[in-house]
């Protein structure tokens, strides 16, 4: 399917691996100039080469920590006028809320709420002026179905989701949409961390925890990153202009609700 966005420019945060990388690959396959980001330059360059090997798109690497002002400045200097912004970040650690102090909470909010808001603020008016923009926040299924040991993520990502719901209706008349993707268990480093924490809490092996989680999912497996990448690609496409302020759950059917 031709997404109709060939030649557009996209910033994809935390895209050296995992879900961000999958989004970058999908957009690059449709001819988007992708600006990929990660903290480790060597890993980022390897990912860039993988994308170049299978697409004809331009790939620009911007190494840096976007949770810092300097990191965001570097990213926006490389691509000051993106048509697409994919906000993505690794989740904060799992644990017991009784162990988290204010500093821990602020760090989680910086990484999973405030950074994303700063990037949206930096690019959304330019998108409005050009009459095209697609902003996609990769959050978590825990926004819809909170997970007790992921309280930091539950709070920060829900805050971002609420903020975006408040502005998404004011930008869509100018063909600028703001939506969220809420991944459940995907084959990423994040699920490995969650499984390790669960295994420790339940005093079972990591393999037992992994098999138990997969068996409990109606799909009987974890998601593949490229599945989320494809969903992201559609939201960013020329066909996504009538969808805004929405949050799409990709969890293999785990959430047992009608809506």
How would you describe this protein?
- Helix 1 (18-29) packs across helix 8, helix 4 (102-130) runs parallel beside helix 5 (151-171) and helix 6 (189-202) packs across helix 7.
- The chain is an alpha/beta fold.
- The model has no long low-confidence stretch (mean pLDDT 96).
- A 7-stranded parallel β-sheet has the order 3-2-1-4-5-6-7, with helices on both faces.
- It has helices spanning 18-29, 41-54, 69-78, 102-130, 151-171, 189-202, 206-216, 225-236, and strands at residues 9-12, 33-38, 59-63, 84-87, 133-138, 176-183, 247-250.
Specify the biggest β-sheet: 7 strands, parallel
- Show unreliable segments: none
If strands are numbered along the chain, what order do they take across the biggest sheet?
3-2-1-4-5-6-7
Question: What is the terminal separation in angstroms?
Answer: 28 Å
Tell me the overall shape.
globular
What is the share of helical residues? 40-55%
DSSP strand content: 5-15%
Number of helices: 8
**From N to C, what is the helix and strand string?**
EHEHEHEHEHEHHHE
* Total strands: 7
- Return the average pLDDT rounded to an integer: 96
Rg of Cα set? 18 Å
Given helix and strand content, the structural type is alpha/beta
């Amino acid at each position: 399917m031709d997404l109709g966005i060939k030649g557009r420019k996209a910033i994809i945060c935390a895209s050296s691996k995992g879900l961000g990388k999958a989004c970058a690959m999908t957009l690059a396959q449709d001819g988007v100039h992708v600006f990929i980001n990660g903290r480790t330059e060597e890993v980022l360059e390897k990912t860039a080469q993988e994308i170049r090997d299978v697409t004809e798109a331009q790939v620009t690497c911007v190494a840096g920590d976007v949770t810092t002002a300097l990191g965001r400045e570097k990213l926006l200097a490389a691509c000051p006028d993106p048509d697409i912004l994919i906000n993505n970040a690794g989740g904060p650690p799992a644990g017991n809320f009784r162990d988290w102090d204010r500093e821990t909470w602020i760090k989680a909010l910086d990484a999973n709420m405030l950074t994303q808001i700063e990037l949206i603020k930096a690019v959304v008016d330019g998108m409005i002026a050009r009459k095209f923009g697609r902003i996609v926040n990769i959050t978590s299924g825990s926004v819809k179905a909170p997970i007790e040991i992921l309280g930091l993520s539950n709070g920060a990502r829900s805050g971002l989701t609420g903020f975006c719901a408040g502005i998404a209706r004011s930008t869509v008349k100018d063909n600028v949409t703001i939506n969220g993707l809420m991944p459940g268990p995907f084959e990423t480093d994040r699920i490995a961390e969650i499984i390790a924490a669960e295994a420790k809490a339940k005093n079972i092996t990591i393999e037992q925890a992994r098999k138990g989680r997969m068996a409990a999912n109606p799909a009987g497996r974890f998601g593949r990153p490229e599945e989320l990448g494809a969903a992201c690609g559609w939201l960013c496409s020329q066909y996504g202009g009538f969808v805004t302020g929405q949050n799409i759950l990709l969890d293999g059917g785990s959430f047992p609700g009608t809506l």
